[in-house]
Amino acid sequence: MDISRRAFDVILMSGQSNMSGRGGIQVKHLEDGSVYKAWDRIVPSECEAEKGTILRLAAALEWEEAQEPLHEDIDTGKICGVGPGLVFATTVLQYYKTLGESVPAIGLVPCAVGGTQIKEWEKGGHLYDQMIQRATVASKRGTLRALLWYQGESDTLAAENAVEFQQRLKTLITNVRSDLHIENLPVIQVGITAVNHPFPELLEKVRQAQLALELPGVFYVDASGLPLLEDNIHLNLEAQIKLGKMLADVYIKCILVE
After folding, report:
1. What does the pLDDT look like over 34-50, one tens digit per residue?
2. Helix (H) or strand (E) holding 163
3. Where in the sequence numbering do the catalytic residues fall?
4. What is the DSSP letter of 252?
5. Which residues pair with 146 in a beta bridge?
6. 194 three-state secondary structure
7. Nearest 10 degrees: CA dihedral of 167, 182, 16, 44?
8. Looking at CB atoms within 10 Å, which of 11, 28, 52, 244 has the fewest?
9. Exposure letters 43-80 (e unless 16+ CB within 10 A, then b)
């Protein structure tokens, strides 16, 4: 796909399943009593954009037209649905259009993998190295503008992980900025949420660690209160649409305008 004649803003998307996207995932019950999950394949109008304006870096490190599920070839072995990425990108493009200036293309770089703890994103591990590789490849074509990070649910199931979460997150962001040679790469992190959590005190500990993180250029949006699937932890389609707009709002106000 020829995108060489227009400005190109690159957005890195990483973390775990709620960034990957489970919007529209349905639980199917068969007559024999078995249960399976499937995406309903409903793509909301908020994801629609003019052809060639939003691209994604596929697992094969090639640019292609962005479409849901954005993480299908990254978060493999799981059922992926709609995440916040496309809604984020379309909302940002709408903002650019209001300026009456040249509108860049947006390149989304999906890296999220469901069910992962933050220690699995340590420098030198597969997930971290893959994310840096993908960001590096993407940056050869455009300008890396921000990292969208949504992770932490898997760290609420053991006290040790919750206690270590903030320092691990701080180290992760520092390493990403260093390895990508962008000292103040903006990061927008999403505050985790869940309902009827088995360890509510650990959920709150991780949430407070996210909120209290003190690093320049790190911004925060809160998923608390957004509607969830029946598993009480994954955002539903409506929530993913709202989250995409929330992320775009912070990106516009705190990164583009600044």
Report:
1. 988 999 999 999 999 99
2. helix 159-179
3. 17, 231, 234
4. I
5. 11
6. coil
7. 140
8. 28
9. bbebbebeeebbbbbbeeeebeebebbbbbebbeebbb
Task: Quote the tokens at residue 98.
Answer: 């209001």
Beta bridge partners of residue 105, listed in sequence order: 8
pLDDT tens-place string over residues 133-179: 999 999 999 999 999 999 999 999 999 999 999 999 999 999 999 99
Query: What is the mean predicted confidence (pLDDT) over 240-246?
Result: 98
Q: What is the pLDDT of residue 1?
A: 43
Task: Kindly report the number of other CB atoms within 10 A of residue 206's CB atom.
Answer: 25
As a whole number, mean pLDDT of residues 68-93 equals 97
In the block, tokens 């949504």 appear at 150
Q: Dig out the tokens for 216 from the structure.
A: 């320049």
For helices 85-98 and 237-250, angle between their N-to-C axes, nearest 10 degrees? 40
Contact indicator for 88, 246 with CB cutoff of 8 Å: no
Residue 72: predicted pLDDT? 97
Residue 153: helix, strand or coil by DSSP? helix
Token pair belonging to 55:
């691209």
Q: Which two tokens stand for residue 44?
A: 């909301």
Angle made by CA atoms 253, 130, 206, in degrees to the nearest 5: 55
Spatial separation of the C-alpha atoms in residues 218 and 78, rounded to whole Å: 29
Q: Is 131 exposed, middle or buried, given 0-12, 13-18 or 19+ CB atoms closer than 10 A?
A: buried
Q: Percentages helix, strand, coil for the chain, rounded to the nearest 5? A: 35, 20, 40
Report CA 105 to chain centroid distance, whole Å: 18
Flag whether pLDDT at 88 surpasses 90: yes
In the DSSP assignment, the letter for residue 33 is S
pLDDT at 30: 86
Interacting residues of 2 by C-beta distance below 8 A, sequence separation 6+ = none
